[in-house]
Amino acid sequence: MYNLALVNHLYFYSLDCSQQPSHPSTVSLRKRLIDILGAIVGLIITFVVAIPVAIVTLIHEPSPIFYSQIRCGLNGKPFRMWKFRSMVMNADKLKHLVENQAKGHIFKSINDPRITPVGKFLRRTSLDELPQFWNVLVGDMSLVGTRPPTLDEVKHYDPHHWDRLLVKPGITGEWQANGRSSITDFETIVNMDIDYQRKWSVIYDLSLIMKTIWVVLKKTGAY
Fold it and tell me: What tens digit of pLDDT does each residue of 203-213 get?
């Protein structure tokens, strides 16, 4: 079960933040239009990919192919994020058994034993991220933004860490396009997210999307 007190805290925090001046990206109609068009294309690809993913998953480990988790979005507002399942069932309850190889308020493990054989392929190719196009379509996420943190991560945030939540979370972003999982220092990720906010423009978003496609095709920094 998720910490309901923390969820309520995040809800009221998001209300407080909504009274502050919005980052330009959160009110950009052009960015939203690109998100909608990209999400429609992405969901078509997701539907096509879901068929073989379902078949292979059911052969290796009969279980749901989709996985959802509560993440923190714009201004810390909680939302349910979707992925293709890449870990064993009840993986969240086994998290305490895995060594965190990252520094700071983020969790990463190169050889996480909870990842299934099919999941390793999905993560290596970034196919596990495809269902997030639904989150983009409904407006919880953007094609480009910051990595959406978990509730467990956010409850340990220092005040300056909250600044990274002043834009919508994205399927890709500054750190995904420039290192992905090879970046294991949370403070580095925070700095990159803040840098993204300073440099943001629709053109810059498009450049990060193109760069991400290249990085994914090369499988750079993925595990």
Answer: 999 999 999 99
